[in-house]
């Protein structure tokens, strides 16, 4: 940390000015497994989120923001600016006893911001590997860290439990202050732990330096079996209008997350730091409404699918951005953004020079587009390719191709609460009187921005609410069962993925498939899913999950369990988890060392031309038949089966 902090101080001495004067504070808040329909600015009255809504209604609601289908790949994409297929991290989340991590050799977002003089703080979930100390957040760009290394834990006792069939039950504490175990925080609700840490950091921040704070909440991920959902009883009692007791507790967890956002915004305002801040809020993937072992009763309605699927319910992540640096706000943006874009976008917003970043990043600098409401610089997003479970999806302009199906298709339907007529009607004045609302109103009054009133909020909310549109096709497409194993949707006009147009527009389907095949050529295979419960067992480390492989050579990392735990995360089931005998190709090592460069050519960078399709998304929906909007056939339409093999 010391050499990094010396640079800005040296610059201050040389130029006699504060770096913070031209580098905005950046606060990224991530909700875990938070459903699309569980934020009230998307239209549901069931769970009011007035603080998050206040940011949304005063900033830009990002309604075409795509993430990865599960935790680890999303976080890897966020911090590297690279598609997980280029990291070998396109598969399931990292398990507690698995010697796997985000490969070294990639500069992470906090490291880039350190280079620009930022003080960097990581709070909450890491989930990018910890079996060796070199993979810890404190070794990868964060000056401080308060949080946990694994994917989930119980909210009060901060314990993660897991059971391996060949080994048995394991449990350990997983809360760290920097690299020390934070036993003193046991018993305190995790969302409050992270909120208090964020507020303490803001209060103590030296405003001569720019601040980067990554708040990766546990909320609203499920905890351990037997106490999946936990919230303070007084919070649960606010949601008596919700009949399902699990959904009621989930609502309280969302509410605690919302209050955390409000508290952080208010603390920034109390120190007059909002004026120079960017606040980005997102969910890392869709909610796992059902399923084992971590269902949370969240809702992605009206979208199809849920966490761990490539349907919109899994990968269209709720998101918003607020900043005085956005010149056109409030607004609802329908421009395509992918989670990989945030690294170059925030680096650019921080005053970094785009050409200082690696030219082969998958993320696109969207800062100018965001700040000035210009069309997205993207017309294409690779949503994922998982070569093990044989799934893939691509978004290109208004089209989306879905290939294969995860979890045997059991999450391919429509799940989750749509809200209910019996819910109390949404109270817009609660947005204005929330801590975030009051802070933003105060900030607006001081800086000359108009204060957003209830009438404007009603209009923004209506615009941000997804409506499924007409149903043209009677049969639901099942990509695992259909003859050509893919489904094609015009998601701009059919956001609920009900009308499979693959047979109507085979030309379009082939073109998207061809693009997927080109991406597939550059895929870094997933490393073997080793499991080492006997080495990782917290009993060896005083009861805390801790790095366990520092004394081992990579060649000695051998699986001592042939199967994944019985309570592994979604995506770690038999179809996604293999023993060491399953070769993952020669280019990666089980210790997570940097993969060898892929020799296959990468697909072209996303187009930087203005995206007509997404520009037009800002206009009212056309009632015209979307079937008439397909591009004309080309020479490429001649099928070329030998070139269309994905797996
Ligand atoms: Ca997640």
Automatic annotation (TrEMBL):
Please report the stretch or stretches of sequence annotated as the Sulfatase N-terminal domain.
Answer: 24-351
- What is a GO molecular function of this protein? sulfuric ester hydrolase activity
Q: Where is the composition biased (Polar residues)?
A: 552-565
Does the keyword field hold Hydrolase? Answer: yes
* Keyword Transmembrane on entry: no
Look up the signal peptide feature and give its range: 1-20
InterPro entries xref list? Alkaline_phosphatase_core_sf, ARSB, Sulfatase_CS, Sulfatase_N
Residue stretches of biased makeup (Low complexity): 568-597, 605-615
Quote the biased-composition stretches of kind Acidic residues, using this chain's numbering: 634-647
Entry-linked CDD domains = 4-S
Q: Which cofactor does it need?
A: Ca(2+)
Q: Where is this region: Disordered?
A: 526-647
Read off the PROSITE patterns from this record.
SULFATASE_1, SULFATASE_2
Sorted alphabetically, the keyword list is: Calcium, Glycoprotein, Hydrolase, Metal-binding, Signal
| Stated family | Belongs to the sulfatase family.
Q: Which protein are we looking at? A: Arylsulfatase B-like
The scientific name of the source species is Thrips palmi (Melon thrips)
């Amino acid at each position: 940390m010391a050499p990094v902090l010396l640079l800005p101080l040296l610059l201050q001495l040389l130029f006699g000015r504060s770096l913070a004067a031209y580098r905005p504070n950046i606060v990224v808040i991530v909700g875990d497994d938070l459903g699309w329909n569980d934020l009230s600015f998307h239209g549901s009255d069931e769970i009011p989120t007035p603080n998050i809504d206040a940011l949304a209604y005063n900033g830009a609601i990002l309604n075409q923001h795509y993430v990865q289908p599960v935790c680890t790949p999303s976080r890897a994409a966020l911090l590297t600016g690279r598609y997980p297929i280029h990291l070998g991290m396109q598969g399931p989340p990292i398990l507690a006893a698995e010697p796997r991590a985000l490969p070294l050799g990639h500069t992470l977002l906090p490291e880039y911001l350190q280079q620009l003089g930022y003080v960097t703080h990581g709070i909450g979930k890491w989930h990018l590997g910890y079996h060796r100390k070199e993979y810890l957040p404190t070794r990868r760009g964060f000056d401080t860290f308060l949080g946990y290394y694994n994917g989930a834990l119980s909210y009060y006792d901060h314990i993660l439990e897991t059971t391996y069939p060949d080994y048995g039950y394991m449990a350990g504490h997983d809360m760290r202050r920097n690299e020390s175990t934070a036993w003193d925080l046991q018993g305190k609700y995790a969302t409050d732990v992270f909120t208090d840490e964020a507020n303490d950091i803001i209060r103590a921040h030296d405003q001569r330096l720019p601040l980067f704070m990554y708040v990766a909440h546990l909320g609203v991920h499920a905890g351990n079996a037997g106490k999946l959902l936990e919230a303070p009883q007084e919070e649960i009692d606010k949601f008596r209008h919700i009949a399902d007791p699990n959904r009621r507790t989930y609502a309280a967890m969302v509410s605690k997350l919302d209050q955390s956002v409000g508290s952080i915004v208010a603390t920034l305002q109390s120190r007059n730091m909002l004026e120079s801040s960017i606040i980005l809020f997102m969910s890392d993937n869709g909610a796992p409404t059902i399923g084992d072992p971590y269902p949370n009763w969240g809702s992605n309605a009206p979208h199809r699918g849920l966490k761990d699927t490539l349907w919109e319910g899994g990968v269209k992540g709720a998101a918003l951005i607020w900043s005085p640096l956005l010149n056109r706000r409030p607004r609802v943006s329908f421009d395509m953004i992918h989670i990989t874009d945030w690294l170059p976008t925030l680096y650019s917003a921080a005053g970094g020079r785009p050409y200082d970043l690696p030219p082969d990043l998958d993320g696109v600098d969207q800062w100018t587009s965001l700040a000035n409401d210009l069309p997205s610089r993207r017309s294409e997003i690779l949503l994922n390719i998982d070569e093990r479970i044989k799934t893939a999806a691509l978004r290109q302009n208004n089209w989306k191709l879905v290939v294969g199906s995860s979890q045997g298709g059991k999450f391919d339907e429509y799940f989750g609460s749509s809200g209910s007529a019996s819910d109390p009607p949404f109270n817009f004045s609660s947005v204005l009187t929330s801590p975030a609302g009051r802070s933003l109103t105060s900030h607006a009054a001081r800086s000359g921005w108009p204060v957003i009133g209830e009438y404007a909020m009603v209009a923004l909310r209506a615009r941000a609410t997804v409506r499924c549109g007409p149903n043209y096709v009677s049969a639901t497409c099942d990509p695992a069962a259909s003859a050509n194993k893919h489904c094609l949707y015009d998601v701009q006009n059919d956001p609920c993925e009900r009308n499979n147009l693959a047979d109507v527009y085979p030309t379009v389907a082939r073109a998207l498939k061809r693009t997927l095949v080109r991406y597939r050529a550059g895929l870094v295979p997933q490393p073997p899913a080793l499991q080492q419960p006997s080495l990782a067992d917290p009993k060896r480390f005083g009861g805390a999950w801790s790095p366990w492989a520092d004394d081992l050579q990579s060649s000695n990392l051998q699986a001592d369990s042939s199967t994944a735990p019985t309570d592994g995360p979604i995506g770690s089931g038999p179809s996604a988890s293999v023993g060491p005998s399953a070769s993952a190709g020669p280019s990666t090592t089980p210790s997570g060392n940097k993969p060898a460069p892929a020799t296959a050519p990468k697909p072209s960078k996303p187009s930087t031309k203005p995206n007509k399709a997404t520009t037009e998304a800002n206009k009212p929906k056309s009632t015209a038949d979307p079937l008439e909007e397909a591009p004309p056939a080309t020479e490429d339409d001649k099928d070329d089966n030998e070139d269309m093999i994905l797996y």
